[in-house]
Amino acid sequence: MSRLCVFACLAILAGALSSCVTAQKAEKQAVCPEMQELQQQSYLYEVIRHLYRWYLDEAEVESLIGNEKFTFCVRTIETSLDPGDNSVLGEILLPQLDIIVKVKKADYTIDEIGVVVKSPGFKIIQIDRGRISAASRLSCQRVEVDMQQMRDYLFRTRNQQDFPDNVMIERLRQALRKEVAKEGISITDLPAGDRIVHLAPLSPIANETWVFWEDGRKLFYFSSDIDLANPAVWEHETMMVRVFDMDRQVVVSPQEVPSSNRFLTRYQVSRALFNCVVLGRRIAVPPPSDGQ
């Protein structure tokens, strides 16, 4: 046997062994409770509803219409975490859309403030676009759902609005006032009276929300590792808040400002405004009184 044939046989054998190991890992993951949670159809429908509302465009939706099945490829991710951090990370791959959804089930303690961070379920932490390899799909558990059934669900819930209770709305009001003061945003040139904001509906699988400040032409993005309904988010300021000025921080393409996350694209702004104004709730925020 020639040396070339030997090398070819070894390469084939190595590939087969690698595929076998990958498949064994996927099979082992399938029995863990976290994987079973990630594979629930009700959860996967919420993931696709979040994408439908915030990410998918018309061409992507139309590209799926002729398919009988929609495929989710689900896996947990082994990663190095701090001592005492029992969080679980996972990925949901959508090969038909080339979208990767990263999720996290938080379970740790912030020692400095004595707050326990424990999510009741997996929450979306990142959404990426990119070609999904065959090897990646092999390492996952495959979940197929009926396309027509999923489309019917998305259509029925396209205008579903889930808003925070009055307690959280008041906390958002206070957070908005604080952030405006922190950013040094001038309000003296605005009309007297209440400030009008529009709150986007909440997602049950994402600890984030958007608020559009109509008078100030600003978009506020709130996100946290802790569920937004948890008082610790507001009491200990564990929330990240970002402010986008719609007159100065909007571009057509991210390539105009490479390596910068201080700008939103025109497409992102249109999605945020749709969710805040069309699907959202209009809220009047009274101006701060003396001493506030």
Number of helices: 9
What is the strand tally? 14
Number of domains: 2
Distance between the termini: 86 Å
Structural class: alpha+beta
Tell me the strand percentage band. Answer: 25-35%
- Mean pLDDT score: 83
Biggest sheet descriptor: 5 strands, antiparallel
How do the strands line up in the largest sheet? 6-3-2-1-7
List keywords for this structure.
14 strands; five-stranded antiparallel β-sheet; 9 helices; globular; alpha+beta; 2 domains; 292 residues; single chain
Give your account of this protein's structure.
The chain is of the alpha+beta class. It folds into 2 domains: 3-156, no CATH class; 166-285, no CATH class. Helix content is 36%, strand content 26%. The chain is built from 9 helices and 14 strands. The protein has helices at 3-29, 33-38, 41-54, 58-64, 134-138, 147-156, 166-182, 231-235, 266-278, and strands at residues 69-77, 88-94, 99-105, 107-110, 115-118, 123-129, 141-146, 195-199, 208-213, 218-223, 240-245, 250-251, 264-265, 281-285. It has a 5-stranded antiparallel beta sheet with strand order 6-3-2-1-7. A 5-stranded antiparallel beta sheet has the order 11-10-9-8-14, sandwiched between helices. A hairpin with a 4-residue loop joins strand 2 (88-94) and strand 3 (99-105). The radius of gyration is 23 Å and the shape is globular. The model is unreliable at 6-14 and 16-23 (pLDDT under 50).
